[in-house]
Amino acid sequence: MTENLEVDLVDENGGMNQIIKDVCLQVFDFKNPNEITIEMEKKYELLNDLCLTLVIEDNGTINKYCPAYYCDVLEIIDTNLSEDLPPPKLEPELINFGPGFNKIVDDVDPRMYHLKPVYDLLSQLTRHLIEVGQDYSDVIFDFCFIEKLFNRLRSRDEEERNMVRLLLMEIYTNNKTCRSNIFKLIMQEIITAIGQKSNVFFHIDNLIDLLYFIIENHEANELENSDSIYRILVSLHRLPYLYYYYEVLFSCCVSFLEKFPNKVQTFTFFILHTIGDKTESPTNRIMFTIEIIHILNLLKKLYDQSSNEDKNELLKIVDKLMPAILKMFAINLQTLNTILINYTLKQLSNEDFVPFYTRQNKLIREIFLLIFEDESNFIQWESTTFCRQILTYMHLIQIPK
Predict the structure, then answer these.
(1) Which family does it belong to (predicted)?
(2) What is the rounded CA–CA span in Å between residue 55 and residue 34?
(3) In sequence order, what are the beta bridge partners of 10?
(4) What is the rounded distance in angstroms from the CA atom of residue 303 to the CA atom of residue 313?
(5) Inter-residue contact 149 to 184 (CB < 8 Å)
(6) Distance (Å, rounded) from C-alpha 238 to C-alpha 215?
(7) What is the number of helices (H) and of strands (E) in the chain?
(8) According to the model, what pLDDT value does residue 108 have?
């Protein structure tokens, strides 16, 4: 494309040729999403050409430019991301609490025709600057730019939100000077969502995913404000739309607890208290039961990796938690939800957890045998037989002949 314009990519001062730059700085409104004009297509092609100028070849060859050129590239990116986006939230009455929810928060933005190559250009620039030297990168990726990029997480286009999330991860990985700013923005936005729980922040899964990424890639002593992270993870369990992001939240929590095993007991009791009695909705009980199983898996992992002395300390934690966990299982078995009952039965027969369960033999007899023998409880004959098989397997009772 640059050859067609019959101009050099770089001007005499080392910056980008002004003709090319002006084309890429144009912002189109896309009033008719089905109409792509010649000017739009020209910009699209030039943006892709600029990406190629920053590509690192397989043999390591790289074109190094003057700081002015990189600043021009960043100006193009910055201008194309300058649109103000509305708050990333929905009023409660607009939420479809069902399969159609994702459609509400995934509008196809026709501007992605240009934004996608802009994000590709930013990704190439990030990698390119690492190769040519950190001096440029530190100057270009200042707080204002990071904040502008971060705010694009508020887009209603799911593809754009995912691209921005991956770019922030890439910048966080490759540029240490940006890490504090990215972490600060994530925490601030999540705190805002928690404070306005009557609204749904549809990008909260991306925010949690970014936090999860940071936790996963740092040792415990490297994580700043770990107490604040813990409080945020706890508070995120209280939002009324937990159903839409519980999977990434639970993964994030387990990753955090693995770094800070001293928090496992307090956190688990919080979850068990949140579940409450059997009046809690079946959906919430299923979600929180899944999280408890994640925690049991973590305890098993920590136990297997520990020295004998640490094993004894972990078993003390298990012994404190297990009575409350078993009571939660007992309540699950008394609900009218077949999915919850079957999932609970499956976990009771999980061989990995049997050593934990059998430390509570007396309690299991007291709790579970009463449930199995009470005909008023909604446990089908087949499930009752299965329960007895589980207890027999655990060497707690014998099935009568």
Answers:
(1) Belongs to the phosphatase 2A regulatory subunit B56 family.
(2) 31
(3) 16
(4) 9
(5) no
(6) 21
(7) 20, 2
(8) 74
More confident: 380 or 339? 339
Which two three-digit tokens encode residue 333?
């078995």
- What are the residue boundaries of the structural domains of the chain, listed by start? 279-401
Q: What is the Cα–Cα distance from 287 to 265, expressed in whole angstroms?
A: 19
Q: Report which of 72, 79, 80 is spatially closest to residue 54, judged by C-alpha positions.
A: 72
Place of tokens 């136990």: 303
Q: Give the whole-angstrom CA distance, residue 86 versus residue 64.
A: 38
Which H or E run includes 373? helix 361-373
Q: Is the pLDDT of residue 5 over 50?
A: no
C-alpha 282/C-alpha 185 separation (Å) is 35
Reported as a pLDDT band with limits 50, 70 and 90, residue 118 is very high
- Alpha-carbon torsion 250, 267, 200, 101, what sign? positive
Measured CA to CA in angstroms, residue 258 lies from 217, 220, 295, 302 at distances of 12, 9, 9, 8
Token output for 359: 């430390």
Among all chains, which residue has been given the structure tokens 């050593």? Answer: 355
Per-residue exposure over 368-380, b if at least 16 CB sit within 10 Å of its own CB, e if not:
beebbeeeebebe
Q: What is the pLDDT of residue 401?
A: 42
Handedness of CA 246, 274, 189, 260 (dihedral sign): negative
Residue 348's H or E segment, with its range, is helix 338-348
Its pTM stands at: 0.86
* 145 close to 129: Cβ distance less than 8 angstroms: no
Residues pairing with 89 in the sheet: 201
pLDDT in tens, 253-282: 999 999 999 999 999 999 999 887 655 678
Kindly list the distances between the CA atom of residue 97 and the CA atoms of 78, 102, 107, 240, 338, in Å, as whole numbers in the listed order.
36, 10, 17, 11, 21
Q: CA-to-CA distance for 212 and 223, rounded, in angstroms? A: 12
